[in-house]
Amino acid sequence: MPRLKAMFESNPEYFLAVNGQPALPTEADEEVQGPVPAGWSCTKKWVIGFVDASHALIAVANVVSDLLVVGVWHIGLYLVATKLHGTGVAHALYRGLEAWTRREGARWLRLGVVAGNARAERFWSGLSYVEVRERRDMEMGLKIRTVRVLAKPIADGTRDDYLALVPRDRADN
Questions:
Q1: Domain holding 133: CATH number?
Q2: pTM score over 0.85
Q3: Total number of domains constituting the chain
Q4: Segments forming the whole domain that contains residue 31
Q5: Long-range interactions of 26-29: CB distance < 8 A, separation 24+
Q6: Which of 14, 28, 119, 127 could form a disulfide with 5 if both were Cys (CB 3.0 to 4.6 A apart)?
Q7: Rounded to a whole number, what is the largest CA-CA distance in the chain?
Q8: In the sheet where 108-114 sits, what is the strand order?
Q9: Residues 90-120: tens digit of each pLDDT
């Protein structure tokens, strides 16, 4: 937990972009111990730390398996140290994360990205994620945001296949 707190404190850019403020002192605790939203089913939640050769924490991911539906996995957080942006490390770590989720049974990956966070939107679209819906007026820290829900098939499938599987993400819900 102390390493995660230090990671959040030393890389405030994500929290400033998303929440309009640095990470709160309780942010790391909530990331690890916080439950999925009430009424949502899942199998398991992982908080995964990525370390470099010197064992320094350089990235973290929060992944939830079988969110809402078996085979749909959700990336709740994917944060790479700011000093590594633009180096290819984020893509390399993501490829490993995606391969792991596939081996563990994921058929779809899903996540939310704040509309207007251009760097994040480019990153995820470059990895073949597509928008399945928008959620407007989401309270995030000091900000009210629009969140673009994105999904990607790990096995074969189309956007329509995903929306048939996860009715909550259809625009009419």
A1: 3.40.630.30
A2: yes
A3: 1
A4: 2-169
A5: 28/1, 28/4, 29/1
A6: 28
A7: 49
A8: 44-51, 57-65, 72-80, 108-114, 143-153, 130-140
A9: 999 999 999 999 999 999 999 999 999 999 9
